[in-house]
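Exam review. A common question shows you a sequence with its structure tokens and asks you to describe the fold in words. Practice with the pair below. Do the first one on your own.
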Amino acid sequence: MKMKKLTLAIAAIALCAAAAAQTTQEEFQTRYERLVRNLGYDGVGIETLLDRWEEAFPDDAAVPVARFNYYFYKGRRTEVVARPGLRRYLGQEPTLTLKDSDGNDVNYFEESFYDEDLFGEAMKILDAQIAAHPDELRWQYMRITALAAYEKESPDMAAAALKQLIMRHATVHPAWTLDGEPAGADIFQQGVGEYCANFFEMGTEAGYEYFREISELMTKYFPRNSVFVANLGSYWFVAKGNDKQAAKYYKKALKIDPDDEAASRNLKIIERKQAAAKKKR
């Protein structure tokens, strides 16, 4: 069964009203969503609406989400930047390809940059919510996602925050919730797995290393989860080009879960490469 994405899209975070929503809260929600559709998360009038919404319903969890989005997107600008020699950048295809004076392709990628002060305001909102609701995964996920977007090629703070979250899970055993609903160990593992995938897709040296470190940490606490074992195979296969070491981890993952698609597919690729190499001898 296909599971929904938990973590990575800041803009797609659901802005749900409280369970016992009153008409007035629904009206605020509707007005906000209309403004966002027409003007974006940082559009004219949104801050004023949020001030009124928070004054009327200070405990509505949708308000800090919306206020975070306001500062995060108000402080973000995008540019098309040349990245010579790169076919992909942070997992993205080039927006534009031009020729240099020697006739070589130069790829251009859309890149985001953030205003320090406005990004800081956005993070203050998340920090306050985490302090008040330390077991609510949505706030934790939003913080890690925002840090990864800000740091780009080397997501040091994002990785550190994710490691802290894993250690909290292992030592404190919190009663996690996600959007107010109980979230068990399976939901927690899925969320961490999505961040691992994000680090891997960056295609940078730091991204690969954090992919490895976090996968190793998760195999320590969740040894029966084949995903993180297969991740280690992919680290050796893609980042290090070590087929032998990769095959070892893929086989280990398949012993845990014979239906692990990534491990099975990549192990077959390695075995075909090895068979082809033998024929050439």
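Now try the second one, then compare your answer with the model answer below.
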Amino acid sequence: MLADVLLGAPLNVITAGPDLFRAAVAAQGVAVTPVDWQPPASATGLASLWCDAVDAANRIALERLLAAQPVLVDVRPAIEVVPGMTQDTILHAGPPITWERMSGPLRGAIAGALVYEDLAATREEAEQRAARGAADFDPCHHHAAVGPMAGVTTASMPVFVVENRAAGNRAYATLNEGLGKVLRYGAYAPEVIDRLRWFRDVLGPALGEAVRRLGGIDLRALIGQAVQMGDECHNRNRAASALLIKALAPEIAALDLAARERARILTFTGGNEHFFLNVSMAACKAALDAAHGVPDSTLVTTMARNGTDFGIRVSGLPDQWFSGPAEIPQGLFFPGYGPADANPDIGDSAITETAGLGGFAMGGAPAIVQFVGGTAAEALRYTRLMYEITLAENPAYRIPALDFRGTPTGIDVRLVAQTGILPQINTGMAHREAGIGQIGAGLVRPPRVCFDRALEALAREHRH
């Protein structure tokens, strides 16, 4: 038998690492084959970050994250409220990127935005302006903002204004257009531009007035209720959208608007099951920004994609991005499309996972698998797995299927490096070519290199 042959053959031991292993075996008269291998630099860095100073910093950052009290307080044109916004500014999702490296959907969204703002008459003219550097590109995250998918925000676009009343900071996100052929998926057809202009002229002002009359809407309470109703507040927002419209509808009905416009507002918002997504993103951004910038903290405060790169930021290194190539999600495609049509992962909506929602809360939203793929059992497994790389459970967002355990919250770079477990994200999929729009939804993870680079930088900073 093979086992007899193997056990009867001369013993040869392969060793790796410190030479004392080789010497100890050789001293017993056994043949040794040494392998020239040393632990990766990140392993040494990881050991240095398991210390009291980092633990204390993470407690501060985590306390700020969990204490956040996001409240929807207004809807205003971006130029009026978003820090650093100008008439020439185009904010995009993900880490910084130049026009030359942008993916098809991001280029399509920028072209559509320039036409919408009357800065170009056609898509071709818009692309020429963008290529010449006529637009000032910058990540949404650099302006306390977030943008789903291509994530484009320009001066006149109305944005949700979310205030974190625990820390006093604010965050911003555009209004959700619904699914299919929309700007955030890189579509720029005339009906896309017309819808955005209706947002600017009618929907945005109406929502702003309604929110102000209400004195704000408590988003932490709303999200907590929605999670217990089967949402994860990334790709499933059915309950959250209904709760938001329920709160706004009486005020919208009382606005001094033509009856047809009030009816159109309620029809659009009531029929858009993703309407709450952008509000959820702004709420998560407001919470995580409060935790950003704590020296020595290894807490992840941003996960974002621009369609080319996937980038993360960590609390202890607030001015740095750590990036790697964005991957193509795996999931369910609309009829007529397949993996070859999909663009690599894109959008700021992974801010929800960063805050303990989205893919981290899938265990409480089993119906999400009908949209992104997988099974209800896998949804539970994903959530349980995320507890392995997070520092806490959010008591505001509890999952009934896990005996009302709080969602896993506070991704720790150290735990990702130690376990090898990567954050689970659910996401929409855009066609790789500009102008087509959404073609499906699925699941994706960040590239490991983002966390390796962050760990190395944190270790260097800690040594100094």
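Model answer, second protein: Residues 44-63+291-463 form a domain with the v583 fold fold (CATH 3.90.1700.10). The longest helix spans residues 190-214. Full marks require stating both points clearly.
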